[in-house]
Amino acid sequence: MAAEVRLYSHLFNRPDPGADGDALADLNPDSLEVLTGALVEPALADGLVGEAVQFERTGYFALDPESRPGRPVFNRTVGLRDSWAKVQTKA
Fold it and tell me: What is the CATH number of domain 2-90?
């Protein structure tokens, strides 16, 4: 089944937004990536809003209140750490 998947990232580009006086200048323009046409198991569309599910090797997602029958929307709540990539960069 096709679904919309929203991948959220850090809202700000620095740990102390607004330290220079303008917090809006520190907003991350890439803090939201929307994937349309992502394929998910049809049973996921029958879940409860806010219920956490794991997308294999990607992270944990929750069904969004904007979901409609035949058009589920999932929000990433927690991404998975990629420790293998860190090992590879050290080698």
Answer: 2.40.240.10
Terminal alpha carbon distance of the chain? 40
Q: Which residue would you say has higher pLDDT here, 87 or 78?
A: 78
pLDDT tens for each residue of 50-81: 999 999 888 999 999 999 998 999 999 998 87
Q: In this structure, are residues 88 and 19 in contact, taking their beta carbons and an 8 Å threshold?
A: no
**Whole-number Å distance between alpha carbons of 63 and 32:** 16
What pTM, to 2 d.p., does this model score? 0.79
CA nearest to 8, candidates 24, 30, 31, 38: 31
Long-range contacts of 25-30 (CB under 8 A, 24+ apart): none
Domain boundaries, the chain: 2-90
Task: Give Cα separations from 29 to 9, 16, 19, 62 (angstroms).
Answer: 10, 16, 18, 23
